Amino acid sequence: MIHKFLHHILPGIIRPLHVLWNEVIGFVFVVFAIVAGFRTIREIRQFDGDGQSIFAVSLTAFFSLLMAYYGFSSFRRARKISKS
Description:
Helix content: over 70%
Number of helices: 2
Largest sheet: none
Shape: rod-shaped
Strand content: under 5%
């Protein structure tokens, strides 16, 4: 009897928690992307053409784009889970 009860109740609890987890992780990654984006803008403004400046701009831009990708893919995954 307890097995049947848990079998019906747990999916209704776990799915929303899984969606919420993906949304929170997505939010964190998007915040990282925004912070890195501001840092990229600062590095572009301080750009003077030497190798270190090129490296700093490319690294911060790459990090910002990567965090944005992970953030939005996490939101997409949360939406996919909630629709299923």
